[in-house]
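User: Sequence recovery, please. Input:
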């Protein structure tokens, strides 16, 4: 599992996040997504820690804490959606019209 860290200042680095989260346990990985077009950070990150207990401790301590002039939003990261394409409902969406009225053979 990993932790979602939102409302980050754009100048935050992996080293900054590692130093903050190390206070609550072992940091295994920090990922700061960037915008595809501008390569700028998107204002959020994901942090993976050594255990779920460490993650829980970090979430409790850091959610709504002020850091670098911003109020952090820290919680368990939700699993990534597999269909990857917009909000077309649970069927993955797609395609074509039709229905019965087009099948008049």
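Assistant: Recovered sequence (105 residues):
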């Amino acid at each position: 599992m990993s932790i979602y860290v939102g409302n980050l200042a754009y100048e935050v680095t992996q080293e900054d996040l590692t130093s903050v989260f190390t206070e609550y346990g072992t940091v295994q990985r920090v990922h700061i997504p960037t915008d595809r077009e501008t390569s700028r950070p998107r204002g959020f990150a994901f942090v993976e820690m050594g255990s779920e207990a460490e993650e829980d401790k970090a979430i409790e301590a850091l959610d709504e804490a002020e850091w670098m002039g911003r109020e952090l939003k820290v919680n368990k990261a939700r699993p990534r959606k597999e269909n990857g394409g917009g909000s077309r409902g649970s069927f993955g969406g797609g395609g074509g019209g039709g229905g019965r009225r087009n099948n008049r053979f």
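The beta strands are 3-6, 27-31, 44-49, 66-67, 70-71, 73-76.
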